[in-house]
Amino acid sequence: MEKSPRFSDITTMGVGGRITEFVEPDSRPGFLEAIIMADVMGKPLCVIGGGSNMLVSDDDFDGVVIRDARRQISVLDEAAPVEEGAAPLTHVSATAGVHWDDFVDYCVRMGLAGVEALSGIPGTVGASVVQNIGAYGQEVSSVVSHVEVWDRETKTVRTLGLEELDFSYRHSALKDSMYEAGAHSAPTKYFPSPRYIVLEVTFTLTHSSMNTVQMGQLARALNVEVDESFDIAQIRTAVLNIRASKGVVEDLHRYANPWMAHTLESEPDLNAAPQEDRDKYSCGSFFMNPIISKNQAEKLPQDAPCFAAIDANGNPAVKTSAAWLIQHAGFEPGYRIHADSQASLSTKHTLVLTNRGGAQTSDIVELARVIREGVRETYGITLVPEPVFIGVELD
């Protein structure tokens, strides 16, 4: 095995150039030392989780890439019930390098509710709070108690509470510290990692085998009503099945790559895994669902999905579906710019851009530009990418 991987080896999209220096510390002192040394030497620092929410240039990355190999989960306590007759709350701590779905699986098996609808999301615990991941009516921010971080500016370990984390839709203060004025604006000196590097996350979960089903698609899959309580293990199974039907779960075959083989709690049986599915070679949802003004929403067709939301300034707004906008702007599942293009929309979901097997980052970027411009021309809405871009731009 070569000394350092390419980003294409360790990202779910399977694109990206050679990494100059790759470090995988398995202790807190080693993790902190690697971060501090990179900063002292003035090298670009990329702290990577599962590589699922990033799009990296085809060029070599002349910096340090650190992947946290600490994978510990601890149940800290049983807190008092929040009200008479309520289920007790439990605090669970996980190091940043824990594979996110391993964490969800652990919680469900322990009878801890609050993250079951987030099953199957690629990535790590550390990345989950940077991105404020969410799906099927749950967001990680709703169960985070606090996050322990390394502050690269003050060179101290800090504990950030919810107010300091400033969570919003697919955002956090952690993510925002990479940019001068919001996602994909001019990078700060910390880019392509945050100022605050996640060390450990403490969650507040409900000690219960039941939880509320909060989204229509999931409710239909379970044959229940929205807001009805249901078994969290069955919720997890249903979510995994829905995600698989859309191609937005990891392809287990990526763990045949020696740079990925040791990153899961238990090694997958690749012989029993489904056949390799190129729809799974993606960043997941490539564009965020737009939050627009009520005036903009009124200009959309009547059948466009619209939901009440709050904008970045705290004002009432409307959230619509990026997938709907893309498809109704003329981009069907499987869309390619050219017949022989190695980058395409997923054959299952228009919000997912995929590598069909030989794509480079430049191919993904070209496809994203065409789709974004098509939506802008049709609806006057500019889609915002969800992944972190390293060495590439859409504009």
Describe the structure concisely for a colleague.
Cell wall formation. The protein has 395 residues and is α+β, with helices and mostly antiparallel strands.
Molecular structure report:
The structure is a single chain. By secondary structure, this protein is an alpha+beta fold. The chain has three domains: 7-67, Uridine Diphospho-n-acetylenolpyruvylglucosamine Reductase, domain 2, CATH 3.30.43.10; 73-244, 2-Layer Sandwich (Uridine Diphospho-n-acetylenolpyruvylglucosamine Reductase, domain 3); 280-390, UDP-N-acetylenolpyruvoylglucosamine reductase, C-terminal domain (Uridine Diphospho-n-acetylenolpyruvylglucosamine Reductase, domain 1). It is built from eleven helices and 21 strands. The strands form seven sheets. Strands 5, 6, 7, 10, 11 and 12 form a six-stranded antiparallel sheet that branches. Strand 8 (134-135) and strand 9 form a beta hairpin. The two termini are 37 Å apart.
* Count of discrete alpha- or pi-helical segments spanning 4 or more residues: 11
Query: Helix/strand/pairing class, anyone?
Result: alpha+beta
The beta-strand count equals 21
Spatial separation of the terminal alpha carbons: 37 Å
Silhouette: globular
Poorly predicted regions: none
Q: Report the average pLDDT across residues.
A: 92
Report the β-strand fraction as a percent range.
15-25%
For the sheet with most strands, the description reads: 6 strands, antiparallel
- Helical percentage: 10-25%
Rg from alpha-carbon coordinates: 20 Å
Overall number of domains = 3
- Say what the CATH topology of the largest domain is: Uridine Diphospho-n-acetylenolpyruvylglucosamine Reductase, domain 3
CATH class of the largest domain: Alpha Beta
